[in-house]
Design brief:
Blueprint: E1 22-26, E2 32-37, E3 43-50, H1 64-71, H2 81-91, E4 94-99, E5 104-111, H3 115-127, H4 133-150, H5 154-167, H6 181-186, H7 189-199, E6 205-211, H8 215-225, E7 249-254, E8 260-269, H9 277-287, H10 294-302, E9 309-315, E10 320-329, H11 333-347, H12 353-366, H13 374-386, H14 393-403, H15 406-416, E11 423-428, H16 430-433, E12 442-445
Parallel strand pairs: 2-6, 7-11, 7-12
Antiparallel strand pairs: 1-2, 3-5, 3-6, 4-5, 8-10, 8-11, 9-10
Helix pairs in contact: 1-7, 9-12, 9-15, 10-11
């Protein structure tokens, strides 16, 4: 006979968890280093984060930083692109480069015995990239092809249009990482070289190291490898301009014969390193940050409109935003939007003690899982650098969560959720969507968010 639980399991005692000790120092060239020593495996994880993301792109060359990030490892020093790839493969090292709005990221995972050799390869990429014209032409074609492909992806279209309409054309966070077809075509191989000279430097970057080494050994090897990467004067850019939203609007990107609607609803919010970050985190857990959140239970479980709906506060270095995301059948679009807006109004009226305690406990109990792997620790240290968080951030994290009160969460909802200032972006068949909303509230835009 099978046994079934008759009572809900009681949470176990808190885990015996030790916060990783962070060591911070600078190399001779000014590169900041964040290091966590871990000897459980013979592996090291290295992240190099350079504040040279797409926010530095000029208006007529959007996509320049991303194209540079694709170019920088296409041959360096004595190696061609294929030879570099082969060298990393022979060493069993995983190497990758990515770009976003704020930064360009290098990531390396390597065995300790191959660490120094892998590090020298990265040093060659950073200090002596080829940036040849023929490589530029090949990578540019890849970007242009990808831009065309994304025009058939309603999820990406919704995100791109939302970002532009949310931040506005004067804000550097309004634009897609890839750029636009016309701006990518404006980029020359000379622009790539100029970007490297102007924005890619050790004194606006950080190196995060996690793994099986010690500080003395690491510092010596890093100084030897990156000695030729010289500090330069930093080119400052203006603070992002806010895009004030004073009235709700519904922006529609028309996709004929679509059976689904992508929905994005949100507004600009505060930056990451603002005092009420922790109350906002708990607030969002209750609103749309977990499966049992209000928005998901309403749209998925109660109404059956979607497989999932979520909300979140996202953070760039210079700004942030709040967003609710989901996709629903076309005929349920207006009802889904109404339910989301109702939930936004409702959360401002307050949360229950039960909701508060469950969300707070969930955040606390999940915290140790952020430090299970070298990669997770490195990601946390990367966020510390980007958002200029204090060095005791992890040590004080749980205590700050525990100190959050129900009243602080209720205040956070009033100070950070503004239903009447939300913009709504819908990607779907305009002929089926227009009749579901008041005509005066509808604005048609293209996939880039530009108003027709």
């Amino acid at each position: 006979m099978e046994n079934y639980r008759t009572e809900k399991p009681v949470p176990s005692e808190e885990l015996d968890f030790v916060i990783p000790q962070i060591q911070r120092f600078e190399l001779e060239n000014g590169l900041a280093v964040y290091f966590v020593e871990r000897h459980n495996l013979p592996i090291l994880r290295i992240n190099i984060v350079s504040e040279s993301g797409i926010k530095f792109d000029s208006n007529d060359k959007k996509g320049l930083a991303n194209l540079f990030s694709m170019m920088i490892d296409e041959g360096a020093g004595e190696y061609s692109a294929l030879e570099l790839s082969d060298e990393f493969e022979l060493l069993g090292s995983n190497f990758d480069i990515k770009c976003n709005s704020d930064c360009i990221y290098f990531s390396l995972r390597t065995l300790k015995e191959n660490f120094e050799r892998s590090l020298n390869l990265i040093s060659s990429i950073i200090s002596d990239p080829h940036l040849y014209k023929e490589d530029y032409e090949r990578e540019q074609r890849k970007v242009l092809t990808r831009i065309l492909q994304l025009k058939d992806d309603p999820d990406e279209i919704a995100n791109m249009a939302f970002d532009y309409l949310l931040f506005g054309k004067e804000n550097r966070y309004a634009y897609p990482i890839l750029g636009y077809e016309e701006t990518v075509r404006n980029i020359s191989s000379g622009d790539i070289r100029l970007f490297y000279e102007n924005y890619f430097m050790p004194n606006n970057s950080a190196l995060i190291a996690v793994g099986n080494t010690n500080r003395q050994e690491l510092e010596e090897k890093l100084n030897n490898s990156f000695r030729s990467w010289k500090a330069k004067s930093i080119n400052e850019i203006p603070e992002p301009m806010p895009n004030d939203q004073t009235a709700r609007k519904i922006y529609i990107v028309n996709r004929k014969n679509s059976v689904q609607s992508e929905i994005r609803i949100g507004h600009v919010s505060s930056k990451r390193n603002i005092y009420d970050f922790f109350p906002k985190m708990i607030l969002n857990m209750i609103l749309g940050g977990q499966f049992s959140s209000r928005i998901n239970l309403n749209l998925r479980e109660k109404k059956g409109y979607t497989y999932g709906a979520s909300s979140n506060f996202y953070y760039y270095k210079g700004s942030g935003y709040f967003i609710v995301s989901t996709s629903v059948a076309q005929e349920n679009t207006s009802n889904a939007v109404k339910e989301i807006v109702n939930e936004l109004h409702s959360i401002r009226k307050g949360i229950t003690p039960e909701e508060f305690e469950f969300a707070k406990s969930s955040v606390i109990r999940k915290f140790p899982s952020n430090f299970e792997t070298n990669s997770q620790i490195a990601s946390g240290l990367t966020r510390m650098f980007i958002h200029q968080l204090p060095e005791n951030h992890f040590q004080t994290y749980l205590e700050k969560i525990r100190r959050v009160s129900l009243e602080q969460v209720n205040q956070a909802s009033l100070k950070n959720i503004f239903p009447d200032q939300m913009i709504t972006v819908l990607v779907g068949d305009k002929s089926k969507l227009s009749s579901q909303f008041a005509p005066e509230s509808i604005v048609e835009v293209n996939e880039n968010g530009l108003i027709f």
